[in-house]
Amino acid sequence: MSSTTLLLSLFKYKAWANDELFAELDKLDPQARQAERHLAIRLLNHIHVVDRIFAAHLAGQPHAYTATNTPETPTLAELRDAVAQTDRWYVAYIEGLTPQQLEESLPFVFTDGANGLMSREEMLAHVATHGGYHRGAVGRIMAQAELPPPRDIFTVYLHRAEPARRERG
């Protein structure tokens, strides 16, 4: 398996996991569980902001973020739409990369002003793992609020996306 194939699979999984999480989080009562819902949205917004920051780094474009979260908190619906759009951007971006581009190192500046240098492949790996880490925290919030989180597991995604993997030859 090539790095491109693996990254593409991971980002399709990320999009699936985000869809599943937003669908379940929408069931969290906004009145009775206001604090938990707000914290979950703040964490998901942080993931999204970091995703957008690294998308800008990968595209060689500036971004307007001065921190890794925004002062305002979007609605769950607004954030869901923005995350889905960003997930589609990453999948399309990876589909257009060559192996040589994946290896290319790009200089950038973190929101705290520190310089950074990472390959495209490293940046993509960071975005994939960073999102998984924080989705897990949201899942914990949901569980504490007595709402079972979705099964955010790569193997679950692979077997749902490709049911033939369950068949034995």
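That was protein one. Protein two is written in the same sequence-then-structure order:
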Amino acid sequence: MPQLATSQAMNDSDAPVRIGLLGRGIAASRTPRMHMAAAAELGLPYDYQLVDSLVRDLPEDAGAILDLLEGEGFHGLNVTYPFKRAMIPAMDELSDAARKVGAVNTVVFRDGKRFGHNTDHWGFGQSLRDGLPDAARDRVLMIGAGGAGGAVAHALLDAGTGTLLVADLSPEMAEGLVATLTEHYGEGRASAVADLSAAAASAQGLVNCTPVGMEKYPGMPVAASDLRPDLWVADIVYFPLETELLRTARAIGCRVLPGSGMALHQAARAFKLFTGREPDSARMWEAFRSFDTQSG
């Protein structure tokens, strides 16, 4: 992990660290509660706010958005759809992960500079190590080639996936990601596919990196008939915790990996980038799970 570019506010114990989540339609995010719980456990003054483009008018240019929010006193940002890729040219410095993935999900403002990181890459990798450490990875099908898909693709190949099959509603997106992966990992490690059924039949694992399965995008990214008991299935969607894809896969005997692990680990890594302090992951998990029993 690169040297931490922690928030300037950490130099002043009386000044709260002001962090925002930049995205569109993020009212149901569990991230603020996880961060606030971690800060409370450490006794850190911390203020986490949503910056939702559906709620407030924001400039179209990523650099202008950052100018605005930094001017409002934010010390850092978590970034989600649809801003992750747009952040890249607006950064002064990029972490290795952000540069490799081509997307930023964490921005730290420090000493007049903007430091861009990608904790999704770490988050999925750690979730895979925890939840499916011995899963076969000779051929894995990944559906969705957007910002999160790019992070997951690199994490899968870093974890030893032999061949990654990439599918997306936009063939250009899938082919573009495959070209990037080929540059980093060499020929033959990634391939764009159009026939989901055929790709799933040849794969040992399947990962959903699309919004399909979220409450506002119900359904599954593949047909139930494409699943089989010896196929492991992962989803990066975490709201709801058990998507239709995971519920269907579990019912036929598949090993499954929910999106909660990636959400937890990426948030913990971002918190450390913002504060320089190691959060209590168990406390963050409690806050994450509290959404199942509390409103908000």
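The mean pLDDT is 93. Keep this in mind for the problem set.
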